[in-house]
Amino acid sequence: MPTSNEPGRSSTSRVFAILNACRRSPAPMTLTEISRRSGIPVATAHRLSRELIAEGALERNDDGSLQIGIGLWELGSAAPRQRGLRRAARPVMQSLAGHTRTVVHLAVAGHHEAVCVDKVAGPRAVANVAEVAGSLPLHATGVGKVILAYSDDPDLCAVLQCTSLRRYTARTIAGPGRLAAELAGVRDARVGYSWGELTVGTASVAAPVFDAEGRFVAALGVLAPEAEQVDRLAPEVRRAADAISRRLPANA
């Protein structure tokens, strides 16, 4: 039963609205920004944020801004499915990062975004926004396109119904028709690309990971400067994704 003074909204719903607002933001947010994005009144957001900070679910920076706390990540990391996926993928990711000298990351489907669950940086890693436990846009990243191409989740499929997708750079695919055509190519080639579509000068290539029963579970991606032509890395990324798939049991 709802216990909120906002009709039809429970305390649990408000807590998750605050956490999701912070999780989806690429940078720490002020309380006012959290209130606006979550739809929670400032006074209520302030009270709940204090409780979340005390539990480690949120962290307060020196300037007063808030971000997701390590306590929440530790809680999510305890999920058996994600723990098994990371355990199977980590040695393969380390090998791939060492050989390609790039950033390698593993992402799974979130609500309307890709969620990075692990990352390994090679010796020539580029700066990127793929932080562990952070979210990435589905339509502007290699891992996101792979997730869209292979997932049958209705929430994710709704992305293709958007009449105008957010542009992060001049090269971001903003039209659903063009995105749908690209996803068909992802399924045919078993690889997805992003060419400066999220951040200028950075490209990515990603491939799907499946469990022992052939169900799609994650996307493995590599990020590198556009000048390095990441398409040359596609065969190696596919082989690495296949290696992770072979290490996964059913229901991974």
From TrEMBL:
GO terms for molecular function: DNA binding; DNA-binding transcription factor activity. PANTHER family: HELIX-TURN-HELIX TRANSCRIPTIONAL REGULATOR, ICLR FAMILY, HTH-TYPE TRANSCRIPTIONAL REPRESSOR ALLR. Residues 9-70 form the HTH iclR-type domain. SMART domains: HTH_ICLR. InterPro entries: GAF-like_dom_sf (IPR029016), HTH_MetabolicPath_Reg (IPR050707), Tscrpt_reg_IclR_C (IPR014757), Tscrpt_reg_IclR_N (IPR005471), WH-like_DNA-bd_sf (IPR036388), WH_DNA-bd_sf (IPR036390). This is IclR family transcriptional regulator. Keywords: DNA-binding, Transcription, Transcription regulation. Residues 71-250 form the IclR-ED domain. It comes from the Bacteria. GO terms for biological process: negative regulation of DNA-templated transcription. Gene3D superfamilies: 3.30.450.40, Winged helix-like DNA-binding domain superfamily/Winged helix DNA-binding domain. The keyword Flavoprotein does not apply.
